[in-house]
Amino acid sequence: MVEQRTILLAVSGASGMPYAVRLAEVLGGRADVALHVIVSDAARRVLELEQPGGAAAIEAAAHALHAENDFSAPPASGSWPHHGMIVCPCSMKTLAAIATGLGSNLIHRAADVSLKERRTLVLMTRETPLSLIHIENMAAATRAGAVIMPACPGFYAGEPSLRGLVDFMVARALDRLGLAQDLLRPWNGGQPAQQDT
Ligand SMILES: Cc1cc2nc3c(=O)[nH]c(=O)nc-3n(C[C@H](O)[C@H](O)[C@H](O)COP(=O)(O)O)c2cc1C
Q1: Where are the domains of the chain?
Q2: Ligand 1 centre from 48 Cα, in Å?
Q3: Beta carbon of 15 within 6 Å of any ligand 1 atom
Q4: Using CB atoms within 10 A as the burial measure, which of 9, 54, 76, 152 is most buried?
């Protein structure tokens, strides 16, 4: 039997919904992951605009779905064990709430709990350019233990398609969550990829 790791994916209302939909598909399709999902109201609006059908795809991939304002859901408590939380994409509002310990919705609360329990918390932030407020909130979240992972794919991986760029970020997110992945080969100095034999 495969040992399952519980991963919490929170989707907030920043641009970048293709990352969230693909990440949900990849995590939800793994036998070794139990995927819990929270989608903010703002995220649902951005999903409608950026990727119609995306909300349904995310929900279909989830093993458990928690409402944004359900503070009695398991992720609100430190006694609920998980192996990593990722906010993808992470809006500047959600970043600010996490950086200041606001806890005003389940995403903020679950992130706050992840930090206090010293569990992995990855914030795939998306805004440009950044104000000093954004930068200081990123610094505060980093000091508290979060990993700031801006949605900035590299262009060196050899796949110039939109799907390739999305997969670049999804692969790096899986790396940070400690999950083996084959979406992105380790950088090999720019040598041609070895043929699999
Ligand atoms: C189409 C669209 C794109 C947006 N993109 C961003 C973004 O990239 N970054 C950001 O911080 N906010 C963005 N926003 C604004 C957030 O949705 C807004 O601040 C919202 O209150 C965030 O709520 P949440 O963090 O609770 O999901 C966008 C809004 C819309 C409608």
Answers
A1: 5-176
A2: 13
A3: yes
A4: 9
